[in-house]
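[Q] Does anyone have a clean structure-token version of this?
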Amino acid sequence: MTDITVVGAGGEYMESVVVVSWHKNPGDSVSAGELVVTVETAKAATEIEAPVSGILTEIRAQIGEEVAIGMVLGTIRDGAAESAAAPKAAPAVIAPVPPSVLPVASPVATLGPARVTASPLARRIAAQRGVDLSAITPSSPSGRIKLRDIDAFTHAHPAPAAAPSLAAGGVSLTRRGIGTGTPFVFLHGFGADGFSWQPLLAMLGAGHAAMLVDLPGHGRSPANAGAASFEDLAAAVGQALAEAGIEECHLVGHSLGGGVAIALAETGRVNARSLTLIAPAGLGPEIDGDFLDGFCRATRVESLKPWLLRLFSDPSIVSTGYVQATLKARGDELRRAQADLAARLFPDGTQAGEMRATLRRIAVPQKIIWGKCDRIIPMRHALGAGPEAAIHLLPNVGHMPHVEAPATVARLILQNACSAG
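[A] Here you go.
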């Protein structure tokens, strides 16, 4: 017999993992190197391959179960042994991890938090429920927060009913958080949607009010946007925010959303107290046109995955489940709408919008965050921001800093907001 175990992932420190899905059932034949089980760490979904060829005879860790590092997940009978020794179990349900609920690390509710120790399952459930882990007192003598602590906390502090998505101004808005202060308005990047901010929101904690915007042509906003510039998109978002009663906010924009955030702050339609830009568009002409074309054309997992890999420094994030969830989130109508929008905003693989002069006119605290491994928009574009912007370059991070380094990005956003007074 050969045990299936997990000992680590990419050098990441872990004490345990959560089983996400089994790709084989007891009695099934497996080949060495074949995917058999997916587990979730505190950082990402990790696929575990069969160490030998043979028959999967036993599954010891069920879906959703938390397992300590080094423990046995299942066993394989080496060679071509008969499968009759192990009874067939019910087919395992494959549960892909979508981009909007990527596992995350310890939350950042203040500018200088102490490290919060929690199991991967507790972190995932806390993120889904909008629970700030730093507010929880662990019941374990080790000081490690577990699922039972999350359940006890949410029972004692029931969250208010989630605000429905608004359709104001034709743009979908979703409220998050229970804070009463100046809200954070998040504008996502090209091809994403408002829920792509989930890893970052888990870092900020539920105590901060947030509004997630689905840009025109994305998410639940109208697909037929007809926008030809950052200013067009900003006008639609500004109208939606005004109709939702938001008069001032802290603006946070990623990539395409960064260019829109600059344009929105310039209009004065909403009083931007601070402006945080993450790998923003609009600060230079270069952009990866091949990525835009490939992303917009892709209709299958096999054709989409290579382009999604360009977004990250850590390739383990782009699991099969991630790609499947990305495909599911955008149907043919949205895909065509995004291709049309890309042709208007980035003709011939070039950024047509020029926002550098506009950014220099905006007199609010500014931070620009860029991954040093960004392959979509060159990091050097940050130099075009002007002398008022603080620039933060993150090592070993690609075009998605809010996914690959959410704790750091959350801390920088809060610093910028605090500097606004």
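[Q] Thanks! Anything notable?
[A] Residues 230-243 form the longest helix (14 residues).
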